[in-house]
TrEMBL record:
<protein>
    <submittedName>
        <fullName>Putative transcriptional regulator, AsnC family</fullName>
    </submittedName>
</protein>
<keyword id="KW-0238">DNA-binding</keyword>
<dbReference type="GO" id="GO:0043565">
    <property type="term" value="F:sequence-specific DNA binding"/>
</dbReference>
<dbReference type="InterPro" id="IPR019888">
    <property type="entry name" value="Tscrpt_reg_AsnC-like"/>
</dbReference>
<dbReference type="InterPro" id="IPR036388">
    <property type="entry name" value="WH-like_DNA-bd_sf"/>
</dbReference>
<dbReference type="InterPro" id="IPR036390">
    <property type="entry name" value="WH_DNA-bd_sf"/>
</dbReference>
<dbReference type="InterPro" id="IPR019885">
    <property type="entry name" value="Tscrpt_reg_HTH_AsnC-type_CS"/>
</dbReference>
<dbReference type="InterPro" id="IPR000485">
    <property type="entry name" value="AsnC-type_HTH_dom"/>
</dbReference>
<dbReference type="InterPro" id="IPR011017">
    <property type="entry name" value="TRASH_dom"/>
</dbReference>
<dbReference type="InterPro" id="IPR011991">
    <property type="entry name" value="ArsR-like_HTH"/>
</dbReference>
<dbReference type="InterPro" id="IPR056526">
    <property type="entry name" value="TRASH_HVO_1752"/>
</dbReference>
<dbReference type="Pfam" id="PF13404">
    <property type="entry name" value="HTH_AsnC-type"/>
</dbReference>
<dbReference type="InterPro" id="IPR050684">
    <property type="entry name" value="HTH-Siroheme_Decarb"/>
</dbReference>
<keyword id="KW-0804">Transcription</keyword>
<dbReference type="Pfam" id="PF24273">
    <property type="entry name" value="TRASH_HVO_1752_C"/>
</dbReference>
<feature type="domain" description="HTH asnC-type">
    <location>
        <begin position="4"/>
        <end position="67"/>
    </location>
</feature>
<keyword id="KW-0805">Transcription regulation</keyword>
Length: 196
């Protein structure tokens, strides 16, 4: 298993700032050629570190409504239902689940219909209550600098370090903390394939 090095982290940081930045520009910043950066990005994608490239739309430019933060107190067992419903709703930009099992989300809603919009989202769900806060200003600066990256074992969920294993099984890349986890995973995978 190849660990992420300083150059990988720099590349991730530059891509987090601008996912459309040319590899040649990134290469100049990190001391590599454009094709070398491309190879590293491909490896990071295959390893599952980079899942997708997205855009960050400034919704204020689109006049998409007023920004609100909604805090929803939930009864046990409602978290997944609410998270999925909120995540798929128009205008919702970020969804958070707290350690207490509540769902908070940041969204833009029509000013005159905020209460009815939230009530519609939460209809037929066991909700203990919710609070809507109007947001005056938002600064969203996701950062990867200074963070420790860790891959998790596909078998046991432990952190994969330099002693770990990586395997491509039927076209998908999996990471394992040790050879025995890889063996167990492959054995179970093959059994499931044979039973299908």
């Amino acid at each position: 298993m190849h660990e992420l090095d300083e150059t990988d982290l720099e590349i991730l940081s530059l891509l987090a700032e601008d996912g459309r930045r040319p590899f040649s520009d990134i290469g100049e910043a990190v001391g590599l050629s454009g094709p070398a950066v491309s190879d590293r990005v491909t490896r990071l994608q295959e390893a599952g570190v980079i899942k997708r490239f997205t855009i960050d739309v400034d919704r204020t430019q689109l006049r998409a409504g007023v920004p609100v933060l909604v805090q929803v107190e939930l009864s046990a067992g409602s978290v997944e239902t609410v998270r999925e419903r909120v995540r798929d709703a128009d205008g919702v930009e970020h969804v958070f689940v707290t350690a207490e099992g509540d769902v908070w989300f940041y969204a833009r809603a029509e000013a005159q219909n905020v209460r009815s919009w939230v009530a519609g989202l939460l209809a037929d769900v066991d909700v203990e209550g919710y609070a809507v806060t109007l947001i005056d200003d938002v600064e969203w600066t996701p950062s990867i600098e200074g963070l420790e990256f860790a891959l998790t074992c596909a078998e046991c969920g432990n952190t994969v370090d330099s002693e770990g294993e990586t395997a491509r099984i039927d076209g998908d890349v999996y990471h394992f903390c040790c050879p025995s986890c890889l063996d167990r995973f492959e054995t179970r995978y093959r059994r499931l394939e044979e039973g299908a």
